[in-house]
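Predict the assembly for these two chains.
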Amino acid sequence: MHLERAHHHTWRKIKSALASGIAFASALLVIAPMGLVFFYLVVNGASSVNWDFFTKLPAPVGAVGGGMANAIVGSLELLALAGAIGIPIGVLGGVYLAEYGSARLNSVLRFLADVLNGVPSITWGVVVYGLVVLRFKGFSAYAGGLALGLIMIPLILRTTEEIILLVPNGYREAALALGVSRWKTIVHIVLKTASKGIITGILLALARVGGETAPLLFTAFGNHFWNHSLSQPIAALPLQVFTYAISPYDDWHRQAWAGALVRI
Amino acid sequence: MTTPERGVMERVEQPTETPSNGEPAPALTFQAKNVSIWYGEKRAIDNVTLDVASKAVTAIIGPSGCGKSTFLRALNRMHELTPKTRMEGTVLLHGEDLYSGTVDPAIVRRRVGMIFQKSNPFPTMTIGENVIVGLRLNGVRNQKFLNERLEKSLRMAALWDEVKDDLHKPGTSLSGGQQQRLCIARALAVEPEVILMDEPCSALDPIATAKIEELIYELKARYTIVTVTHNMQQAGRISDYTAFFYLGRLIEFGPTTKIFTNPTEKQTEDYITGRFG
């Protein structure tokens, strides 16, 4: 009896150790690719990341040095444009879904937003190409910003809605019971309570579109020089990395590695 | 809602209906007439007529699901926040119809404050901000006025001495009982005429409960209070009038001493003596 129990005890320990081991190995497998990517970027790109990279324009093929300053600034400008479109529409739409609207209309809107979230990003580039670039006869920062902004809208909409729905109803009732209007309750109580989550959602959406290349191909187009007007083509970091990476030149490849490293 | 003629008829009839059997009739804050409320198809309140006396505590008791919270929420139109509600009948506040088309629910709620079962100070605000939030969001900017009202409300809620040095701390840093008194201070700050309480002590320990009950007794001097409670002893301790609800109907209503010692209805007696519910 006693021996039998001891035997069970050892077997249980083995099972437990086995399960922990498998879980640990799985975790390693998840992290490993990320580590590899980072390692590769550092090995190939670190040598080209220097002060010049952040301050200089791209150098012609064969010339030494040069940087991606225009692409870094361009990316920031595009994100600002995209945010100006995506943040207000996404947040207000999320407020509508969570606080107003009928159950049936909301389920339709929610479904559409989820479908839009699944649309490949290059499709947005093509749509904006058709709607804006062709009509105004030229690639521009506006078009690029619009394409990225359109991608942001359904992303921010859904996260905002979900965060707002997490705000306990007791807070809404407490404010309404003080005679505060519905709108003020939403702005001052609900949105304030949910603000951290909403901001996280916005940052994630910005990070997501900040890494997009495809929608910019037909819209912002890219530019090897400083952009002086938002109605002109503009460079963006991921786009620059893409053009450099598919080029046949070794020094451009090095710059592409550096650009990818900076993006992280 | 009733048809307009019926509403007017009832209001005209009202004074003659008040019993005048020698005793002076108490001043009335609410007069609910033939109130029925539906949630979708479900009838939560069935033809309730009830008068609430001014500057007194009226307790609503009854088993879970009997409609007591729904009736309470109909007194400041909070039940309308639940989708698909429908109401018939009239509720008068000092003779004014709360449900006439021109009345803004926000104004009703400014006059009729509410305390909830679960204390709910706003987590993004300090203790001080929580108290004056109702005034601030209704457009009051005068800092001196706000500070005076802050202290006055906290004193009335018997919380001032405990928090006067911590007004900048988050409202949620207080204990459960203190949070509930903070919510009472928040409701008092907008100077309502009536305070509705929806089981204000059900989440509190006996000591915190005793403090709230004491507070209710003090507030009665200035305010009309309607409270819903599950706790019969509490209803007996704090209330002047008691209404017993069962399955959406008002079974019996009268002075608390009478309801508890000599109820007219068998159902009331069974509930109070613990035979069901």
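The two ends of chain A are 60 Å apart (CA to CA). Chain A has two domains: 2-49, 69-234.
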